[in-house]
């Protein structure tokens, strides 16, 4: 009977693979990996599961120790200290479907040399983080050249925290003409006299990487209006641009650049000078921008640009104003009354707003971030009635919120799936159980006190209601 029962419950590998992929793909619509803590490390359950997870692992992160997130449901850490020199290539052999590789540390050239010799690998994404490199001038030029010769499938390249030279930009332009995504964010310092040659390097990228759809040049302080306009003019397929902290670019420069690329869908940028009404001219050609992140200059409070968003980008679905601490309730209401299609709104760190007089209706809003603000119970009552379709609400470190305000949200937001109460000092974790009972749609709660120990009865309730309540124990690494 026991043997017969075992046979009855046997599932072939392809069935388990489908189950694992279903669990991963349906956990969260907004790319938050933390919601997988309630799963055990499936690769350690059995040899069958180990074989399956090897097959469906697509991404590998290599640090001084190796982290293997099975997308990211399955997690394992392996130390490479004292391992043979070919350990990385042997590890990659284990995962035949690997298409994304993230490398960091002091041996990037050596690691790139190993993977470039593997004939079977078909990488699509390569992420290099030089932030941990001991040499401040380090750039893995030799390794990148080898990769470009032997791995022709690469479409996404990240080289962040590098000590940038114009020669590096020319190298990327020459070696990777098929790139669709390029991230060169947060470069290390350069000399003032190098700015002209660096701008020439940006122009070389613009002329060579004609298939680029996404580019991230965060904190490239040397970039000027001319380079940006040339970039947008040349990149015909560009859909997303992240140009934050490039303070040599003027408002007019952004306006002119956007006019060169009318098919742009997502823009993240910083204000670098006083508001110029000519910026409004881009409204003629850019109604299709759906994602906008605006960060102000530390010494400029330019409310005018923000207020124009409503007329310039009427089809916005994602608006991130977390870097605009000077905005008030009237500013936000002005934008929201006109941009009625917004689905995700980030107002974190809006320190002067209390949100009590927010008179607006945003029926399509699904994600709202009010972390580190002065929002209180009265404001949450108003907001929850105006945004009844909310799926995700972030209230981290909102010190004026009490249990009363949380109850307003739970009562009015009938589709709420996730709420973050971390650091809400006036809310006690013992309200979580009543929240789960009152709002069955909840799937994830981050309680105000991460070290709170829930009772066995409460944990059974959370499990029965399929709601993950994240605690400090879930942050422990195996």
UniProtKB/TrEMBL annotation:
It comes from the Eukaryota. InterPro entries: Leu-rich_rpt_Cys-con_subtyp (IPR006553), LRR_dom_sf (IPR032675). SMART domains: LRR_CC. One of its GO terms (cellular component) is SCF ubiquitin ligase complex. One of its GO terms (biological process) is SCF-dependent proteasomal ubiquitin-dependent protein catabolic process. Gene3D superfamilies: Ribonuclease Inhibitor (3.80.10.10). PANTHER family: F-BOX_LRR-REPEAT PROTEIN 2 (PTHR13318:SF106), PARTNER OF PAIRED, ISOFORM B-RELATED (PTHR13318). This is F-box domain-containing protein. It comes from Trifolium subterraneum. The lineage of its organism: Eukaryota, Viridiplantae, Streptophyta, Embryophyta, Tracheophyta.
